[in-house]
Amino acid sequence: MDKKNTQLKNVLDRLYVKYNHRKLIAPDPLQFVYRYSEPRDMEITALFAAVLAYGRVAQIEKSIASLLSFMGKSPFRFILKFNRTKASGLKKFKHRFTTGRHLVALFFLLKEILSEFGSIEKFFAKEYSPSDPNIIPALSKFSDNLLAMHPEKNKGLKYLLSNPKDGSACKRLNLFLRWMVRKDDVDTGLWKSIDKSKLIVPVDVHMARLCKLLGLYRRKTISLAAALEITDSFRFIEPNDPVKYDFALSRVGILDNCTGWHRTGCEFCELFKFCFPTRLNVLKVKNEH
What we know:
The chain has about 290 residues and is mainly α. It has helices at about 5-20, 40-50, 55-70, 75-80, 85, 100-115, 120-125, 135-150, 155-160, 170-180, 205-215, 225-235, 245-255, 270-289, and strands spanning about 95, 100. It has one domain (about 5-289).
């Protein structure tokens, strides 16, 4: 590892120690998973919290809280007993592009999966191979298999179960996988059958902006290719755990109010010496044109 990456790793490790704590999870949707202690309830909650993790933070929290209230004390048992009568209770549910109808479809799919496999992990793991370079092939098959079980052309369900084969960065499903596979004070580590080294960084606009400033990728759009490039950069720094720093870096934006623009106080940020040269290069290119 060259000097720059060694320095970056040292800074990232300090940020990990600083931010990677259970008490700092809120307002991350992961907070809802820790409302439960039973692994089967936590797994179900994690999937719904992840797929609804788009839009404004306050609305995400409101929608997830509303859904969990509807599901009662045990999301797992609720799914197993789900029927058309209970489905009527979701008629008024609305979270941006997602309606109660889309969630009903997902409820029935999960009911079928849990009845046959007992957990989402076992359903996912049947398509996972340790020889795959990363989790993408298994994630693609996971989405394909779920949608194949629901033959209707349900665009809302397809949006919730984004597929990497379409070029999507699949931020929400990769977030779900991080929560399930990694084990530390933040991530649950409930899934034991998947190697954390295969995970892909969940990339949204905030993570993409920060990684661009750190020089971890060069692509212009947030796509699967960008997520892979970012992950490869982190894998070079931390080969066995490329998504290790995801939560800590997201806290930089949330807790330290990093917007990607230079402001008073930036020079006190530990990442400043890495992102400042990138800003200068961007300004130089703009001035040249």
